[in-house]
Amino acid sequence: MSTAATPVTVTVTGAAGQIAYSLLFRIAAGDAFGDRPVAFRLLEIPDARRAAEGVAMELSDSAFPLVDSITVTDDPDEGFAGADAVFLVGAKPRGKGEERSDLLIGNGKIFGPQGQAIARNASPDVRVLVVGNPANTNAAILDAHAGLAAGQVTAMTRLDHNRALAQLAEKLGTSTTRLTNMTVWGNHSSTQFPDVAELRLDGEPVAGSLEQTWVDEDFIPRVAQRGGEIIEVRGSSSAASAASSAVDHMHDWFNGTPQGDWVSVALRSDGSYGIPEGLFASFPCRSVDGRWEIVQGLELDERQQERIRTTADELASELDTVREAGML
Ligand code: NAX
């Protein structure tokens, strides 16, 4: 049984990258795992290992009371040894002139072997969050190789969820903390469906006060394309907000979601809401006793079903691409 003094072993891949540069320090501050000490395992590719060692030096220099140990490695077996929580941030970016299929396959070559290394080395109860893009399909590939139970491997749509809450809070002139029951369905891509149908303000349904044209023409595209907007304005892709959402995801997984609320999590579909089994799609999920459960019983109208079909179709075609390449 774990106590406050038992370290949680946390693996972060892509440790020399820009998301990790924020994520590691948030974890070290206790934002994901509370007052449990953290044994960090930072996994990088050989070319970036030295830079990851520099990040580890800074982590050490910060003298966080909760940092138990820091191991930097480019060996996946060492990187995943005893892992209780894994943040898979490292991924291959799209190269010049590459198609989306090249990106899917290039990443399949990373996530298949990482799944096998997790199976060999991590704790049997490990909780895995894939952040690296294309996150949903990377998670599907990893899941096929890791042999873990349904729900142990997840992909991140919490940033989309948080972006949606921020847009809604601004529109309604309120704060994100008063808004609940938001859902992002499907793929972490431009086909995602940020769905306000069940949205509540202080526990009361509020969707009726949002004009449908604003939802369809402003809100949904803005959330779905927010990543591109950040690149345009900041000059590089979302990093601190991605790290913050990864912390939120793992925090809720370990600590539970607030009573009555849910969050958006991409995990292996069990066929709920017509999303074919096996696709890694984002659903409304509650964290109960350390496990994600898909919220059941929501009623979907034709318009919602159509948007969910569109994003599920995209996920199915991504999976076909990697299956044809022999990666599943
Ligand atoms: P960076 O390019 O800054 O860092 C990525 C790091 O991963 C590099 O240091 C690289 O050496 C490392 N890496 C590559 N292959 C690896 C492997 N096999 N094992 C270990 N490390 C490996 O990217 P950053 O901005 O940190 O973004 C990381 C990933 O997050 C990207 O794929 C990005 O597209 C994705 N994102 C996902 C988001 C989401 O909501 N799911 C949002 C933010 C972000 O765009």
Automatic annotation (TrEMBL):
NAD(+) binds at residues 14-20, 107, 114, 131-133. It is an enzyme of class 1 (oxidoreductase). Pfam families: Ldh_1_C (PF02866), Ldh_1_N (PF00056). The active site is at 188 (proton acceptor). Transmembrane segments: none annotated. It catalyses: (S)-malate + NAD(+) = oxaloacetate + NADH + H(+). GO terms for biological process: malate metabolic process; tricarboxylic acid cycle. It comes from Corynebacterium glyciniphilum AJ 3170. Residues 157-323 form the Lactate/malate dehydrogenase C-terminal domain. SUPFAM superfamilies: LDH C-terminal domain-like, NAD(P)-binding Rossmann-fold domains. This is Malate dehydrogenase. Catalyzes the reversible oxidation of malate to oxaloacetate. GO terms for molecular function: L-malate dehydrogenase (NAD+) activity. Its EC number is 1.1.1.37. The keyword Disulfide bond does not apply.
